[in-house]
Amino acid sequence: MTTALPLPDRGQPWPWPPLFKASAAVHAGAAALALVPGGWPYGLAALAANHALLTAAGLWPRSALLGPNVRGLPAAAAARGEVAITLDDGPDPEVTPAVLDQLDAAGARATFFCIAERAAARPALLREIVRRGHAVQNHSHGHRHHFSLLGPRGLATEIGRAQAVLADLSGRMPHAFRAPAGLRNPLLDPVLHRLGLHLVSWTRRGFDTREADAGRVLQRLTRGLAGGDILLLHDGHARRGAGGRPVVLDVLPALLQRCREAGLTPVTLDEALPPRHAQPT
Q1: Do 141 and 113 meet the contact criterion of CB atoms below 8 Å apart?
Q2: Each residue of 213-245: b (16+ CB within 10 Å) or e?
Q3: Which of 102, 117, 130, 146 reaches 20 to 30 Å from 93, CA-CA?
Q4: Could you give the CA distance from residue 73 to residue 75 in angstroms, rounded to a whole number?
Q5: Cis before residue 91, ω within 30 degrees of 0?
Q6: What is the pTM of this model?
Q7: Nearest to residue 165, comparing CAs of 157, 146, 6, 69?
Q8: DSSP-assigned letters across all residues of 25-89
Q9: pLDDT tens for residues 234-269?
């Protein structure tokens, strides 16, 4: 199948984030201190503090310290009153079709960050997502719990395999990636840059994988709701309420109604977010 988005531009060098430049300076300073009598404890302390900061940045899903992190839609989309409803961890054969029906009923489009293994197991469902006008993006191949501990080769393999599977099934090359649980390490962004993928987090999330109260999930998503927001729900690993019904199915219609009342239009990330290596016009 052909891709709808340009292939990544591997000729563009990866731009070092300021934190990485500072980290390099810390390492150089620590090496210099090691040559000074009695200086090595200070150098070791500086290295420990530096690595603690890098680790903390990776454990903060919305941090931009390790590289670009899309936490809201571009200013033009925000000015148009557009929001992005994103759903993670699917496709799920029970929940995803019901989510699609609810989106259809509201005339709304959403973005599905799919686990490639799950998509490969349900290819017809993945294609149905696209057929109904929604976007499919990369949420890793297997959603491994140790994803944030992978090295460059492991990250490239995990994300690249997902790219190949999702592009083949959907007919579109994903241009956005969301890390499993939002957790990552300093080695991720060079891989995403090489693959032409944005790291996308969210403006606010509902915590619907652990919260059984639909009202509380909705409140978290709609408090301060405004154009440009990226909202996070789950069609996979969905928490179920007291009656066994997935919470997302009680939240989504109410969320779409709040968007209508606020004059906001749900759009896909394909529509609102240009490719990472788009050329300036």
Answers
A1: no
A2: ebeebbebbbeebebbbbbbbbbbbbbeeeeee
A3: 146
A4: 7
A5: yes
A6: 0.88
A7: 157
A8: HHHHHHHHHHTSTT-HHHHHHHHHHHHHHHHHHHHSTT--TTS--B-S--HHHHHTTEEEEEEEE
A9: 999 999 998 899 999 999 999 999 999 999 999 999
